[in-house]
Design goal:
The structure holds two protein chains of two kinds. Chain A is built from four helices and four strands, in the order αββααβαβ. By secondary structure, chain A is of the alpha+beta class. In chain A, helix 2 crosses helix 3. The longest helix of chain B has 22 residues, at 113-134. Classes of the chains: A alpha+beta, B alpha+beta.
Chain lengths: 137, 223
């Protein structure tokens, strides 16, 4: 895990200045969220809010250093047979909590992608109501 | 138009040269520039470019040269660039993409990525060795751009670096980015090592609309 942990600070710093970034989950004063284990000791979680789906996609998959970490993930993480990444829209200004996130992931696992919980491969647009907008993940 | 009619539009050497030139540029190209590149007159170029546009192989935009605007700024130039849509014909019908999608999903879920990267590196190295055997005296830069061109990457020079205009795995990479970009990087690392190229190395560095890998001058690589 040393390689992964060594990347936490620089990659999170890249996220903080990426276009469209709004907020990310942290475990107290640490640089990231690696100490949080709501899904058991063997599962790390991570959550962030972005202005739109394209900004998030650009950071996750089109930012050189972050993509390089994604490319090497099998050095550090076992594959999961169930979906481990979920996207959903939140109202502007809303900071999602872990319970909310886990319930959206559960929705995705039970029902497949839908407007309340979706994926990059099967995205859904922001709901058309005033004040809506930002995807969490 | 049927797919086969679209592709048939390219079955003319002059038109093909025009298309290849337009497709290889990073931004819109004027009729004048395309004509010069293809070695033909502007009227003939306009005729061919319009056929390409009708078929949806190139897209037309209008831009004012030099960023001028307002009355008196000059008539906007008609610019051509490669269209985004893919076109494919296979006879008899083949659907390798459906198989690729399934295989990608399985590699993703079972975590066989390291094996995929090893296999890709090995395959890339074989291509590199073959390229070197064909042209033993060619300088590294030319050997590499030649091999990349033959594999459809559409390389172009950017200072000491080689950038790649096209991703040969585009739709698959869009759906499985770390898997396919990782595979792609391994293919290109293999190519460089198989061709015994020193002074150039491959690295992930996506640019909008381009392939995720840059082949860069290792001497300038500062960490």
């Amino acid at each position: 895990m040393a390689g992964f942990m060594a990347g936490i600070i620089p990659v999170n710093a890249l996220a903080d200045t990426a276009p469209g970034f709004v907020w990310r989950l942290r475990d107290g004063d640490g640089p990231g969220a690696t100490a949080l284990r709501p899904c058991g000791p063997d599962v790390m979680v991570n959550m962030s809010v972005w202005e739109d789906l394209e900004s998030l996609r650009d950071f996750v998959y089109r930012n050189g250093p972050h993509l390089d970490f994604m490319r090497r993930r099998r050095s550090w993480f076992h594959p999961m047979a169930v979906p481990y990444l979920v996207l959903w829209w939140v109202p502007a200004g809303h900071i999602p909590g872990l319970d909310e996130a886990l319930s959206r992931l559960d929705m995705l696992r039970r029902e497949g992608p839908g407007s309340a919980a979706f994926t990059f491969r099967d995205p859904y647009p922001a709901p058309a109501v005033e004040g809506a907008g930002l995807p969490g993940s | 138009m049927t797919e086969i009619s679209v592709i048939a539009v390219l079955d003319d050497p002059v038109r093909r040269r025009l298309y290849d030139y337009v497709a290889a540029q990073g931004s819109g190209v004027s009729r004048t520039e395309a004509a010069a590149a293809a070695g033909i007159g502007r009227t003939l170029a306009a005729f061919h470019l319009d056929r390409l546009a009708e078929a949806g192989l190139v897209e037309v935009t209008f831009a004012r040269p030099g960023g001028r605007s307002g009355p008196g700024a000059g008539r906007p130039a008609k610019l051509y660039r490669r269209a985004v849509a893919e076109h494919e014909v296979s006879v008899p019908p083949r659907d390798y993409r459906a198989a690729a999608e399934l295989l990608a999903e399985v590699v993703d879920v079972t975590g066989a990525e390291p094996e995929l990267q090893r296999a890709a590196r090995s395959r890339g190295a074989a291509a590199g060795r073959a390229a070197r055997q064909r042209s033993p005296a060619l300088p590294d830069g030319d050997l590499v751009t030649g091999a990349l061109s033959a594999q459809g990457y559409q390389p172009y020079r950017d200072g000491g670096d080689v950038r790649l205009r096209n991703c040969p795995f585009h739709l698959l990479a869009d759906r499985h980015p770390p898997l396919i970009c990782g595979m792609n990087l391994a293919l290109l690392e293999g190519l460089l090592s198989g061709a015994a190229v020193t002074g150039l190395s491959a690295r992930l560095d996506p640019r909008p609309g381009e392939c995720c890998v840059v082949v860069e001058d290792s001497k300038n690589n500062v960490d």
